[in-house]
Amino acid sequence: MAWSRTTYLDTDDLLYFRSSHGPVVQRLRVREYGAAADVTSAPAFDGPSVLELKTTRSGSRRRKVRWWTDAATIERALSGDPPATCPTPLVRHLARPLRPRVMTLYRRLAFVGEEPFGIRITVDLDLRFVRPDGEVLAQHEEAIVEAKIMGKEPGWLVDFLAAVGSAQPISKFRTGMLLLAPEAPHTYAGA
Question: What is the pTM assigned to this prediction?
Fold first, then answer.
């Protein structure tokens, strides 16, 4: 089983969380990939890691800057010592004091279509929201399905979406932050 663990980072003044309410939404996160023997086994995260800056403008235009490396190198970069291989946009963000705020853990199935449509469908299962100290805050019981299309939408997908309707998008980071402090989501400063 393929697993993903994402650690969302933020500043003490919650710069990234507060961006949720602006025209430019940003997330800085570390994603680790792992595997488990079966659905009842704990995953081992000894696969690749990525430090990622995700920027969304005007609701749907997304840009991701990804730096694939090992977990130890990412940890060193987060402590203020990014190596020369770290992309410049990430180095600027790493200059801020950051700390882990909330983690997500989930199993992911991915289906990738062939050209010319460039479709990628992911299904996230067993989503858990976790404090950096390991305490589970909540578990999302329903599957999260997301379709990403790089080219023209095929007719079958247009018909399918028309039949099932469009669902509300979920922000795992925002949901996790609200679980940490539901009574004061805009002023939360502890984790």
Answer: 0.86
